[in-house]
Design goal:
2 copies of one chain form a homodimer. By secondary structure, chain A is an alpha+beta fold. Chain A is built from 11 helices and 10 strands. In chain A, α7 packs across α10. The structure holds a DNA duplex.
DNA sequence: CGTGTTTTTGACTTCAGTCAATTAAAGTGG
DNA sequence: CCACTTTAATTGACTGAAGTCAAAAACACG
């Protein structure tokens, strides 16, 4: 594997560095992780419920989502993922996948053998700690989603989701301030918020009329971040981002 | 600390053993973890949102819950916890608590210094792996809760919750088959399912009329587990329990 | 262009929430 | 042990937020 290979895992190194202090050897070990690159088309499955994956999938570019299907045919999106996310630690470490991971857009992904992850985690405690923290942060996000879907009304749910996405994109350097890529369809937003597509459409219209946010095709323009965060009841603590990130959103009112 | 002390952490050893293979030294190291015992009354806080806990709380006996408060005063319970659960890995590892942990009943808890956890996790990879897996399983439960609250109707939500609780109690040996301790009030069930107490009351009545389950004070009697799992759309994969546990529920129809 | 998504809108329905009052338990202290 | 307070459960009547159904308009793309 040559110089090309080295760069593939850069998003992972970048992210883990923000989660726990890593030295140069740690970073080198991350970049050196064995892996195979694959690109997948939008809506392709990375893992399906019931699979027994042997590799961990790192999302290098593009967007992905985790989905669960319920009995009556409904679907719930339980999280979205962006560059640098280990999209499948859980499924590969737990043996059998309890949910689906799907590409949302076309993605580039690195598949890393599970053993290599375990080895680096315990061979290099700093890396292990970072991976563990990543797992914990994802848990924190899931908890916030439970609260979002369980206890907020539709307008807050959507506003909250848009705020979260803005912060997470900022943290990885995509999504320059107040206009950012939002590749989900309204149906997907509905599945993420526990609403129906029709209602998402109406709520989005309301948010627009309120002058808070404007949804364009494939992206979103936030006009008043503070206002959006307010009706979305959004406080970013649960994302456990490094202190630098939140500042970006101070200027939300363009 | 004498022989008494050794037994305190037994629930933890017991649980971690089911998550990853541990040798005798691993178990001894777990039982040897420094800790202080405390008992807390029902509804006392173990951690509050915003705290910066330095200790990890292990629930030795009793029941606890994680709660998040939303802007309009609503509360969402995002998980329940039972004996053997590390109720506060997330908050202590992530620095600042993004949610509350509260005793649901009177509890006995062991508070273990955060550094001791980190040391054992990386000094004894088998233990570390078990802890990591515990974190991942909790994430899996959170995802299922997102789907439960987001996409199931009220009767399924409650039925699902009751099934999950039955399985989790079985896994730690409390809750002998079909009658088990269910210490939550209807208000707490409502906060866990994203419903109102009034509606929970009505749904519980319906479940009773359907002959599936009967709620008594402080406990619940399941008359038809298969039927309950059916309307609850409950499949236990996401709990990632050892294969032995599920069998107990084969005899659900007493 | 034409075909297939995705978005948008309107009319109507329903599940669950709200309000309010009652009953039943569970403590508490004299 | 019993009045007294508090907390939890129950019930009914009414409301409302979000869902459903259905059709039209707007894109996206080969």
């Amino acid at each position: 594997m040559g110089h090309q290979t080295i760069r593939n895992l850069h998003p992972l190194a970048r992210k883990l560095r923000t989660l726990a202090p890593l030295d140069d050897y740690d970073e080198a070990a991350i970049l050196d992780l064995p892996h195979t690159m694959r690109s997948l088309d939008a809506s392709a499955y990375v893992v399906r419920e019931g699979d027994e994956p042997t590799h961990c999938c790192l999302l290098v570019s593009g967007f992905a989502m985790r989905t669960k299907l319920v009995g009556d045919g409904g679907r719930q999106i339980v999280n979205f993922h962006i560059s640098g996310d280990m999209v499948d630690l859980q499924n590969s470490m737990l043996g059998v996948a309890d949910h689906n991971v799907q590409a949302l857009t076309r993605i580039e992904a690195a598949f890393i053998p599970r053993e290599a992850i375990v080895d680096i985690a315990f061979g290099r405690p700093a890396v292990g700690k970072a991976l563990w923290i990543e797992t914990l942060v994802e848990g924190a996000i899931q908890r916030e989603w439970v609260a979002n879907v369980g206890r907020r009304k539709s307008i807050s749910r959507l506003a909250h989701l848009l705020c979260e996405f803005a912060y997470r994109l900022d943290a990885v350097g995509i999504g320059p301030e107040c206009q950012y890529t939002l590749p989900m369809t309204q149906e997907q937003l509905a599945d993420a918020t526990g609403l129906t597509p029709v209602h998402v459409n109406r709520v989005l219209k309301t948010l627009d009329e309120m002058g808070l946010v404007q949804k364009l095709k494939g992206s979103v323009q936030i006009h008043d971040f503070a206002g959006l965060a307010d009706i979305g009841d959004f406080r970013p603590t649960y994302l456990h981002l490094p202190p630098s990130v939140p500042e970006i959103h101070q200027r939300g009112n363009a």
